[in-house]
Amino acid sequence: MKKIHKIAVLTSGGDAPGMNAAIRAIVRSGINNGLEVYGVYNGYLGLVQNDIRPLTRGSVTNIINRGGTILGTARLPEFADMEVTKKGADNLKKLGIDALVVIGGDGTYRGAKRLHDLGIHCVGIPGTIDNDIASSEITIGFDTAVNTAVECIDKLRDTSNSHQRCSIIEVMGRHCGDIAYAAGVAGGCDLIVTSETGYTVERVMEVVNRAKEQQRRHILIVFTEHITDVDALAKKIKDETGFDSRATILGHIQRGGIPTPFDRVLATRFGVVAVQELLAGNSGIVLGLQHNEIVPIEIEESFKMTKNIFRKYAVEVNTNASK
Ligand code: F6P
User: Fold this and answer.
1) In whole angstroms, what is the distance from residue 276 CA to residue 314 CA?
2) Distance (Å, rounded) from C-alpha 106 to C-alpha 176?
3) For ligand 1, what atom is nearest to the CA of residue 132?
């Protein structure tokens, strides 16, 4: 088994609160185990551009409570090209770096798989607010994003109730409904619409009309992004039911902010286990949270997995949720 001496860490794709806590854990536990640790700046872009610098214990001081990622991040679709991947692998090899921890989503994992095939030891950590990585029940950043969304929904409840309005709230998630499910349940929303529940205007009107009959003072409907034009829907609700409506798109607000203690602890656990896996000579794996344990999974296997943790609660708990 090849002994690892130098490792690097990068963050890729959308940033997620808690990524810094993972970087800190990797740097500190790497150094504690006698490794040299490097940071790759701006994700795979920095790998290709050779923006790779040493990290010390001091480099990760005062970051556990900071949102974003101190390493910066980027989206680099070109990294899917094997020639571009090879350039990144060569840059690591030139510096004598044997292993890489990548923090990100599925696209990040695919890059890690290609680097592994080129002889770089790779471990992936799930970091995305979307929670759309099936191999981990929870991803780094999801808890903070849900907290942010619920705080916003609570505020919208106040003003909607005061004005007797319907609030349509659009949350992030790309094509995964988990933020909508979790925030919708915690925010006591009347309807949760995601790509998994499906969407019809009729269903929305039914919920609004029922609330009107019940003389409710407010209606809260949460949508995952990319489903419909929520501003147009708010206007349609007002025109067709007479119930005054407004749409609020939470947007990138959900990606920033101080990570919750849950995200900090989860990220630290992932970071420590990633270093242990590399020291044990393992590669081509991603880490997942399963039944509250951090477990390694072959990257290829992780792509075949599915999960459905939040939707069932949304349907059972929220009487108005789409079936
Ligand atoms: O992957 C996280 C995420 O915030 C998604 O929820 C969203 O669809 C996407 O990133 C937005 O990406 P960008 O910041 O590149 O516009």
Assistant:
1) 37
2) 13
3) 1
Which residue, by CA, sits nearest to atom 8 of ligand 1?
174
Element (H, E) at 53: strand 52-55
| 3 pLDDT tier (thresholds 50, 70, 90) | confident
Give burial (CB, 10 Å; 0-12/13-18/19+) of 137.
Answer: middle
- Cα–Cα distance between 130 and 196 in angstroms, integer? 14
pLDDT tens string 57-100: 999 999 999 999 999 999 999 999 999 999 999 999 999 999 99
Rounded CA separation 112/89 (Å):
10
Q: Which of 11, 69, 130, 132 to mutate to test the pocket of ligand 1 (most atoms within 8 A of CB)?
A: 130
| Bridge pairing between strands 191-193 and 166-171 | unpaired
List Cα–Cα distances, 17 to 28, 156, 272, in angstroms: 19, 23, 18
Choose one of 128, 172, 224 to mutate for the ligand 1 pocket test, by most ligand atoms within 8 angstroms of C-beta.
Answer: 172
Q: What is the pLDDT of residue 318?
A: 55
The pLDDT tens digits for 23-55 are 999 999 999 999 999 999 999 999 999 999 999
What is the pTM for the complete model shown? 0.96
Enumerate domains of the chain plus CATH numbers. Answer: 6-141+259-304 (3.40.50.450), 145-255 (3.40.50.460)
Q: Which residue from 124, 99, 117, 106 is spatially nearest to 295, judged by alpha carbons? A: 124
- Judged against a pLDDT cut of 80, whether residue 314 lies above it is answered with no
Residues with CB under 6 A from ligand 1: 13-14, 75, 128-130, 172-174, 225, 255
130 has catalytic annotation: yes
User: For residues 229 and 175, is the Cβ–Cβ distance under 8 A?
Assistant: no
Q: Which of 251, 244, 250, 234 is nearest to 154 (CA)?
A: 250
Res 2: pLDDT: 72
Task: Give mean pLDDT, residues 275-286.
Answer: 97
Residues in the chain, how many?
323
